[in-house]
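Narrative progress, year one. The postdoctoral researcher (J.K.) led the effort to move from monomer predictions toward full complexes, under supervision of the PI. The following entry was the first complex the group processed end to end, covering 602 residues in total.
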Amino acid sequence: MDKKTIYFDNAASSRMDERVLEAMKPYFFDVYAVATSEFGYSLGIEAREALDLARAKILSALGNPEGKLIFTSGSTESSNIAIKGVVRNLSGKKGKHIIVSKIEDFPVLNSAKSLERNGIKVTYLDVDKYGLVDLNQLKDSISKETILVSIQHANQEIGTIQDIKTIGEICDRNNVIFHSDATHSFMRIPFDLSKLSVDLLTVSAHTFHGPKGIGALFVREGVPVAKWIDGGFQEFDLRAGVENIPGAVGFAKAVELVTKEENETLRNLRDYLVEKIQNEIPYTTPNGHPEKRIPHNANITFHYVEGESITLHLDMKGFAVSTGSACFSKSLEASHVILGIGGDHERAHGSVRFTFGRFNKKEDVDKMVEALKEIVRQLRVISPLKGEKVR
Amino acid sequence: MKFPYSEKVLEHFRNPRNVGSIENPDGKSTEGSPACGDMVSVYIKVDEDTKKIKDIKFESYGCASNIATGSIITELAKGKTLEEAKNISWKQASDALGGLPKIKTHCSVLAVDGLRAAIANYEEKHGLIKEKIPTTKEIVLKRLKHVMNPLAGLDLVRTNLITGVKVENGTAEVTVNLPEEHQFANNIREEIVEKLESLWDIDEVIVNFSV
């Protein structure tokens, strides 16, 4: 890869921090045993200790809630275990209804759709123009049949933060299990799970400079999650498979490295970018909530142009971003998030997501906006859509 | 750096040829729609004696393969007779570009359709349709396959939105299974009218919304 790529797609993946790799290294080359061999030899004890320590550090970052943290292969697996695990355990006993929001990320949305094909009733909650779930609709949708509500903490594309405190209270009052996907909020905004009625929470290391292939699911004490991956007795007998100890150690290290100051820096960079684009490029619409949003995400529609053309031009100039355009996705479907907030296809096709991370600099933002100005101008020249005013 | 497109595609994407519109074109067309994604407009000027394409321009609201195909198709068509230009296929355009990713067929085929539609528009306007086939329900439906259902990103016919077609005494009447006040109703009406009004024996297009 070209070293000069300036990466503004940190919600998709992020460059791993060298300090994370240093922390992981001993668990590849020295302590390479699995934790389950602790009764066989001492190397296993060291492995077990490393795994427990990593778990404790991440739980501490979550506010030391009462419950278990299960390591998984990432957010996708965590959300699958949470949703399918609860449904498998309760659908025969309590009811056959679950509730999710329309703008969930694919692990939650497609788990729900898969369950729907197998006879589970699913309610897809609407969101307002900023992406906020309608809490009254949530209350009205809960019935005696409802076993699970899954509503994300922060949105993957537009960054809107849901009120998981109130949602948790609503679920609690109605005796419904609440799962939240916190992939895009964990470590970027403060929250304390010990003070929230969240029963299951999905997190992942890859969004804040940790390794890929490691995530976790928090399971509150007493929440009935059926074992999804069968095999040995690892992870409290809830998720079988050889423990990814280097991954867990790297995850915990990545957690340690994020600071409040860093998140402030990311917020400033983001605000700087949005202001610069709005001042220098005409016909743009910001997507997502103006205040209730994660600090490192901006999502902007550039009207009259198509997003894949913008991303490819930016890529040729060394900048990586992503778009909600249908042309960008393998499914050729426009972003369900932008459509979910009431945007039309044109708004989705022209939407570009910028997500910031530790290695981004203000000069990079300046350079990108310079490039973007010219790219959008050129694409509008050849667009049949713009009408007389832009010509 | 690595790209998902051939060098030729990238070159045409970076520097598209024959971009823009033509004032008072002899033939023009728009394929696709903003609501469903890619959109291409093609404008042609035709030499009346030789029936050769004197000038051709295109505009694109679309992804890289859409822009690149629009560009190559104008290069291929310029100077050709209408008959020759009509026969330019998607395969020829794709080959000239060094190949396109399979998933991008939909976006790139629009430019080829656009060229053919602009030529058809010229022929219809200039009374050049040799065999004057009377417009039938089938012909109307074939044309409506080029009008997108923005809700599904597929055309109106395939998504069963067309519930009635009547052709009688120069009037084409189309019924769309959507409420009149639907956000896309006006777009859809305009597109249907545009697609049908150039048919040689159609004087009036009526679009009804049935819900």
